[in-house]
Design goal:
Elements: H1 13-26, H2 29-53, H3 58-81, H4 89-105, H5 113-145, H6 153-156
Helix pairs in contact: 1-5, 2-3, 2-5, 3-4, 3-5, 4-5
Length: about 160
C-alpha cells in the first residue's frame, strides 16, 4: 500500500502566486492610498451618527457603527493579517451598498435628511474604494500580460 505525500495547501503554486500578486498590488502607491482612504471612510461611517447628529436613531446608529468597524477591518486592518487578500474587498463593496440603503431599511423612522445624506455619501465612497481595492490585483496582472492575460507583443520578441 503506497502512501502519497501532499504538500500543504499554503505551498500550492497558484496560491503562492495569488498572494504575491496581491502583495504587489497593495505595495503600490495607489493601493496604499486606497487602503488609507478606506480606513478613514470606515472610521467616519462608524462615528457618523455622533458626527452628523443622528445618534438618537439607535437602529441606524448601531447599524453604522457595526458597518463602519467591519469596513475598516476588511480594508484597513484585516487585509494586512491575511497577506492583503483583496478578495475581501468584495464584502466591503456590499457594506458600502448596504450603507446607502440603510436609512430606509432599518427599523424605525430614521430616514432624515442628514442621516440619508451622510449614509449616501459614505456608502458611495465606501463602495467605490472597495471596488478599486478589489480590482487592484487584477489590473496589475492585466498590465503585465496584456488585456486578456496573454503576453503582450513586446514580451514575445
Amino acid at each position: 500500500m503506497a502512501t502519497s505525500h501532499h504538500a500543504p495547501i499554503e505551498e500550492h503554486p497558484d496560491l503562492v502566486e495569488l498572494r504575491a500578486r496581491h502583495d504587489r498590488a497593495a505595495a503600490t502607491p495607489r493601493g496604499q492610498t486606497v487602503e488609507a482612504l478606506a480606513l478613514v471612510t470606515g472610521l467616519y461611517l462608524a462615528a457618523s451618527p455622533w458626527i452628523v447628529g443622528f445618534n438618537g436613531f439607535t437602529t441606524l446608529a448601531v447599524t453604522n457603527l457595526i458597518a463602519g468597524i467591519a469596513y475598516a477591518l476588511l480594508l484597513g486592518g484585516l487585509g494586512n493579517s491575511y497577506e492583503r487578500t483583496h478578495s475581501m474587498a468584495w464584502a466591503a463593496v456590499v457594506i458600502g451598498v448596504w450603507t446607502c440603503f440603510a436609512p430606509w431599511v432599518v427599523a424605525g423612522d430614521v430616514a432624515r435628511t442628514r442621516s440619508i445624506t451622510s449614509n449616501l455619501i459614505a456608502g458611495a465612497a465606501a463602495a467605490l474604494l472597495a471596488f478599486v481595492a478589489a480590482s487592484a490585483a487584477r489590473d496589475r496582472t492585466d498590465n503585465r500580460h496584456g488585456a486578456r492575460g496573454r503576453r503582450s507583443t513586446a514580451d514575445e520578441h
